[in-house]
Amino acid sequence: MSESGREPEIRLAGGIVPPLCTPLTPERELDVPSLEKLTGHLLGAGVHGLFVTGSTGEVGYLPDRTRQRVLEVVAGVAAGQVPVLAGVIDTATPRVIEHARAALEHGADALVATAPFYVPTHPAEIAVHFREIRAAVDLPLLAYDIPVSVHTKLAPATVAELAEDGTLAGFKDSSGDLDDLRSVLETVDTERFLVFSGSETMADTSLRLGAHGLVPGLGNVDPDGYVRLHRAAGAGDWARAEAEQARLRRLFEVIRVGARPMSRYSSAIGAFKAGLVLRGVIEHGTTSTPMIPLDDAELAEVRRLLVEADLLTGGSNQS
Amino acid sequence: MSESGREPEIRLAGGIVPPLCTPLTPERELDVPSLEKLTGHLLGAGVHGLFVTGSTGEVGYLPDRTRQRVLEVVAGVAAGQVPVLAGVIDTATPRVIEHARAALEHGADALVATAPFYVPTHPAEIAVHFREIRAAVDLPLLAYDIPVSVHTKLAPATVAELAEDGTLAGFKDSSGDLDDLRSVLETVDTERFLVFSGSETMADTSLRLGAHGLVPGLGNVDPDGYVRLHRAAGAGDWARAEAEQARLRRLFEVIRVGARPMSRYSSAIGAFKAGLVLRGVIEHGTTSTPMIPLDDAELAEVRRLLVEADLLTGGSNQS
Amino acid sequence: MSESGREPEIRLAGGIVPPLCTPLTPERELDVPSLEKLTGHLLGAGVHGLFVTGSTGEVGYLPDRTRQRVLEVVAGVAAGQVPVLAGVIDTATPRVIEHARAALEHGADALVATAPFYVPTHPAEIAVHFREIRAAVDLPLLAYDIPVSVHTKLAPATVAELAEDGTLAGFKDSSGDLDDLRSVLETVDTERFLVFSGSETMADTSLRLGAHGLVPGLGNVDPDGYVRLHRAAGAGDWARAEAEQARLRRLFEVIRVGARPMSRYSSAIGAFKAGLVLRGVIEHGTTSTPMIPLDDAELAEVRRLLVEADLLTGGSNQS
Amino acid sequence: MSESGREPEIRLAGGIVPPLCTPLTPERELDVPSLEKLTGHLLGAGVHGLFVTGSTGEVGYLPDRTRQRVLEVVAGVAAGQVPVLAGVIDTATPRVIEHARAALEHGADALVATAPFYVPTHPAEIAVHFREIRAAVDLPLLAYDIPVSVHTKLAPATVAELAEDGTLAGFKDSSGDLDDLRSVLETVDTERFLVFSGSETMADTSLRLGAHGLVPGLGNVDPDGYVRLHRAAGAGDWARAEAEQARLRRLFEVIRVGARPMSRYSSAIGAFKAGLVLRGVIEHGTTSTPMIPLDDAELAEVRRLLVEADLLTGGSNQS
């Protein structure tokens, strides 16, 4: 679909495409060495793509130059081994197009955009929005359905229409609505249009329904688990996929460690980063302002859950 | 409160502070001459401040450099006659601080920021958010309560706490919750803390409850009406204020002209800009992508309402 | 409007129409003597009507026969001195009509009904709903706009249409949307159609906007305060009305005493009933299952607020 | 769990438990012969239980005596062949208990209750609510999770707690949240606690996740389809279950035939009843006031979808 002249083109495919955490220094600057290590950690696990500057990547907090630097670093490490998808997240079309142009320039193989938010919107305008982004920047475009953040839900009929006319190359569902996911899969040409689920906990079910791939935030902490789940599903070994999913569901309890007044996002992103620190992948668990950092009791709970999931040995004390 | 060394300081005060529309050319570039004329039109009506890059100013659509240029142009025309407030609207703290720094540089006298959006948030994080913005840029900071866009409501207790500790210099209510507005007015020091209402239609009531000022989008089209309303209220002539409000309530029906599938924002911003074209203030009614433009029937309805409100003569045909 | 042949007809009018609490024994049976005393307490304060089986009256908890008994008792005590309005609250038309028939039989002078709830609904169906209720039972019908309970908002245009065609005799706003309240007042014939506000805290503002009356739950505890507020407003003495309102706003903090896990309704109804016990009007503060009863600390806070509002002397220890 | 002394006890089990439509005459009275035929139609298809006075049964519209008569008629026809579950749907505990007592008297084998609605509620109160219902009436109690109607979601932890202490015998999910359904299945004792899905369109997935049974409204129109789907799932023949589901998903488009202004419920219930008329099971498609009846074009679309699903022959003209 992309004919931007860049050669050889990285073909967008399904599989495990983790939404990368964005490692920060204690001063809240981008921690480039940690980001490089994280990218290597994911590639080493055999993931099939890398999604930068998504919600898990704290995109809503990152200044533009940091977003671009993240993409540049990850695309540099990936070096064409797997496609790099870039979230181009902003309130409305002209601002999104600015991000899309920057993403093209900094090495993205595909773009992921939400419906407009903050500004009131309407399905008729959402369709214009995606068409204008697609027309402005020649990269495959995926629609990112994340009602918890944008407060509108993409109707399967809208997705189907934008798939049909070539605006969209794919769809990432972070709504949790598996019924709508199935409707999309029933109506698009699944040979040409890729459907991803953002669910950590219904990954096996999503694949069973025909989804091409997964974009699990928890895949930062345990990419091997998701790669195994995906491989089992691909082989039709659903019992094994379900067993892996059951383990990952228990591990996903990390997102609930934050017991003091804080957003659930503070808890989840804090826990993913803490898990990466505990596993020795990144240097610091620092999250962006104004998120509330996890305290020692909460971090101990993250450790406990990692031990239970066989990602750490209980005796070690490496936090 | 500001000690930025810029002299002479423009003191932020109450009164009529219209949120300026952002005139665009048919190619959707900033129409600087029209923006200058609009600023002059408002100053000529005797407004007490100018609020740029707010929701009415299509801030969610404008790229950063356009936001900055708008501020620069308006501050240039205002030339210290009245304070210029700049909306620094973005998803979370680090991005908002970038806008705040740019606003300081381009001539803002005060900043207006919302709670975080897109990213999940929590009252504990909202307080950190405003404190960090205030700490980063030395300009008076107003909290902008606009739940329809950000999907959280600022609790009066949070506003009071941030007023008390000097984080906030004021509050702009666009929630429509007059009970909460009253609670804020009951708990802050109204000698030092400014409360604005964003309501076009409950302006008289807001002033009666003690609000210091108004930020009405419709004030682009009819600034004289709001200046008269404010003057009557200041003189305790509530009957006159209510009569003016009644006329402005009828005029505000312009926001509902859009009868085809479109967001209510397309209808409202389209109508304000059409009204400014009809009144000869700006050149084009163009709105940002992906808003749906008003059609001829809808524009005729805008004209009819302006004639009814005595802002146009019925015989003229100047559209 | 009612031509039911009952003579002499009690004319529905504006003024203070408290929504009566429903006193219960510790065994959660209707406490008839307390209900009689409460009715007398309100009539003695000079209220202009009595509203039974509304939300404040725990209508959602009361079995049908209790609802009917409440109405019977209150209508008996009122004995034609003031009109008795009955809430006929249920999920959809046929069930509401059953309540309406029972209310006619047990002494109601007017009916108060919400839009359908639990069942999905639509404005086109809401209009049918009110028309069918009006056609079935010949009593003046008021629409009760309470989105927090029914999860739809009555559009002013719908209210105006149903006022125009004689379906509705009035409207009770418990939405808190004063802008819509004003729209209703602008479009109905206010000589024939009565508009009530259910707000405890914006009562003066509602009257200033033209509302005919008030239905404040807090009016159980302090009917004299609302009668004074209404009298001041009627005399155009807005400063006095606002001062009374300010005192009542502080008293209304009673609804927030419930600090443990409970619904805000448990807190509010518990506090109103506790206030009535403290003032010696009813015997027990018991609320319906499954509401959480207030504990001693919470009750002490109710007492403190009553003392502050001059409804109790601080030295007494009558709880 | 039930020790009501009624012998022989009907054991509640999983399987297909359709929520029966409530046939009405054109005068909107209960059509008893049609209800008897519908019950026979379902039993003939081999369903495993019957659920009366649920949302599909228009419970929100039916007066108490109609609810009781429906139960009596269906229990009479069922005659102990399969358990009969009765929805005891009302706003809060005391009213629900009244329905529960009536249901026990009129032949229910189990009760299905929602969280409180209309009245504000809280998880702490929801737990009390179910415990009080269970204590009052000795029949197995299922929690009915239907946020679209009651506007709260039952947390899996609440369900697990009420399962653990014996309050609940089962859970019916009509939230569409398969992730939560899975959490419930992971935490309860699935030997003793029954989990049903109310989804027409994710029935295969729900069974795959471990649900014991299905309560599909569309099962009125095509009980054989759901019985086949359930049988295939029970045999581990997931390909066959998915194929049946795919056909039923297409048929479920009947709920969207209503293209004029009406609630989606008018469309869905109208379509189910129209389908039953077309299939010769019930006499009239009449729905309760204030639902909007389907018009001829909408009915033709229902027919078309039934023909496509092989439930009618295209040539016939039996509507």
How is this structure best summarized?
The structure is a homotetramer of 319-residue chains. The first copy, chain A, has 319 residues and is of the alpha/beta class. Chain A has helices at 32-44, 64-78, 93-105, 123-136, 147-150, 156-164, 178-187, 203-208, 223-234, 238-251, 264-278, 296-308, and strands spanning 15-16, 50-52, 84-87, 110-114, 141-145, 170-173, 194-197, 213-214.
Model description:
- Chains A, B, C, D: This is Dihydrodipicolinate synthase family protein.
- 4 copies of one chain form a homotetramer.
- With 319 residues, chain A is of the alpha/beta class.
- Chain A has a domain at 15-237: Aldolase class I (TIM Barrel).
- Helices cover 43% and strands 9% of the residues of chain A.
- The first copy, chain A, contains 12 helices and 8 strands.
- Chain A has helices at 32-44, 64-78, 93-105, 123-136, 147-150, 156-164, 178-187, 203-208, 223-234, 238-251, 264-278, 296-308; strands spanning 15-16, 50-52, 84-87, 110-114, 141-145, 170-173, 194-197, 213-214.
- The radius of gyration of chain A is 18 Å and the shape is globular.
- The termini of chain A are far apart.
- Chains C and D meet through helix 3, helix 4, helix 5 and helix 11 of C and helix 3, helix 4, helix 5 and helix 11 of D.
